[in-house]
Structures are given as structure tokens and as C-alpha cells.
Amino acid sequence: MDCETNILKITDLHKSYPLRKGLSLPVLQGIDIKIKAGEMTAVMGASGCGKTTLINVISGVDRADSGSIIIEDTEITNMNKSQMAIFRRNHIGLIFQDFNLLESLNVKDNILLPLILDKNFSHGEELLQKLAAILSIEGITDKYITDISGGEKQRAAIARALINSPQIILADEPTGSLDAKSAKDVMEYLTTINQELQATLLMVTHDTFAASFCHKVILLKEGKIASVLEKGDKSRSIFLEHIYEFLKQIGGE
Ligand SMILES: Nc1ncnc2c1ncn2[C@@H]1O[C@H](COP(=O)(O)OP(=O)(O)OP(=O)(O)O)[C@@H](O)[C@H]1O
Ligand SMILES: [Mg+2]
Fold first, then answer.
1. Which residue out of 23, 51, 62, 205 has the highest number of ligand 1 atoms within 8 Å of its CB and is therefore the one to mutate?
2. Atom number, ligand 1, closest to the C-alpha of residue 49
3. Does 29 fall in a domain?
4. What CATH number does the domain containing 53 carry?
5. 47 Cα–ligand 2 center, Å
6. Torsions phi, psi for 178 (to 5 deg)
7. Which residues contact 61 (CB under 8 A, 6 or more apart)?
8. pTM value?
9. What residues are in contact with ligand 1 under a 6 Å CB criterion?
10. Count of domains observed in the chain
11. With a cut of 50, which residues of the chain have pLDDT below it?
């Protein structure tokens, strides 16, 4: 396939954090990633290897030191904060481990919030109904966040991430706060969304089971990509074993 189908293209990305006495902690040390439209990709690696840093730099929450990040056709590394905030709202869907929903609003208003912020209501209600149906949350849209379960919160957060029809969804440990059953549900819903809406997803996870739902698993080690595993035509359960064995061999988790 040619590079025009890449939704995300990251080239030679570097990011370090300043330490005391002028020293710095190198975290991302030359990362190259290409994600095609409609792909589901997981990034795995030991705690502290830079997974959240990678998501924060791609979403523009944090800045890279050098390298290039192109989302669709737009280079985002040289945008200023306010340009990035607008770009993020319109082109990127974010899903977090702890959901980041507003407890003072009900499910429906949480989902519609990105549109309210952009004063863009044109297809909101229609898309809300469609997403709520796919995610099986039609019955709880009037409920407050405090009155729903963790799995329901994450499904509401997925709907909120999709309401702006983003080019790419970035998720940081989307199953990290969920029990095994809710984690499986969330991954199945994300798979349905990927298939029905051709949504492109990049998620970081510790969870081999969650990663096995993806087309591709990227393993980070010491700030670099250690390897890339492709699901190919393997079943999910065979891919799960494959990832598990691989992690055991490289001692990546
Ligand atoms: N704002 C910061 N300032 C300084 N160091 C940081 C900052 N954020 C993260 N780090 C350090 O950078 C490294 C990578 O952190 P990051 O949060 O990206 O890891 P991670 O792979 O997401 O880990 P986990 O799996 O535990 O979530 C860690 O050593 C961490 O301590
Ligand atoms: Mg993290």
C-alpha cells in the first residue's frame, strides 16, 4: 500500500524529560510508526517505557523534542498550544484509563460535550443515537456518571471520543480500570466500532488480552520499537498466545 493511506505517520520521534542539574531522562529515542486508515494498533511495553508519553505527544498534550508527527496531511509538531487544542478537538478522539468524564453532567451531555465546545450541533443527535446503539448505552444516556458502572463509563467515553468523527482514536490503557468481563466488552465494542465506522485506533496497554483484538502490536523497549507483531489471518486466541510468548522471550512486561 502507498503512504497516502497512512492516517498517522511518526518519524524519528524523540522526547526526554528534564531532570535536576541540567540532566535529562530520554524516554522516546527515535520512534517510527505508520498507521493506516482502519487499523487497530496496540503499543505494549514495560511500565515506564514511554507509552503514555507517546500518546501525550501524538495528541499534542505534550511536545516532542524532535521528529515529525503527521495526522492525515497535517504536521502537528510545530503547532502552538491553541492550534493544537482545536486540531485535537476536531481530528483526535481520546480515551483514558480513568474515563475523564464530567460527573456533574449526564451521559448524553458528556458525549456531546466536544460538539458543544465547538458550537457544532449539526449531526450530533443522530450520531449520538448511532453510537449509543453500537455501544449498548441507549438506556443510560440520561443517567449521571456517578450512577453507572466502570464498563458503562468507558463505553460513554468511547462515544464521546467518536462524536467528532475523528481521524484517529488514541487510547491510554482503555481497559486498565476495568474487570475482566468489562475489559472484554470494551474491546469487543472497539472492534465493532473499528469495523462498522472504519475507525482507526492506537491504544497503549499492559493487557495482552486487550492487545490481541488489534491488527498489530508494537513493542516498546528502552525508548525504541523492539518489534512489531502482525495478527495477519491468525485467530484472536492464537494471536494472544503469540504476543504472550513473545513478551516472555524478550522480557518486555
Ligand atoms: N512529566 C514528567 N516529568 C518527568 N519525567 C516523566 C514525566 N512523565 C513521565 N516521566 C517519566 O518518563 C518515563 C516514561 O513515562 P510514561 O508515563 O510514558 O510510561 P508508561 O510506559 O506509560 O508507564 P505505565 O505503563 O506505568 O503507564 C518514566 O520513567 C516516567 O517516570
Ligand atoms: Mg502509562
1. 51
2. 21
3. no
4. 3.40.50.300
5. 7
6. -110, 150
7. none
8. 0.94
9. 17, 25, 27, 47-53, 206
10. 1
11. 1-3
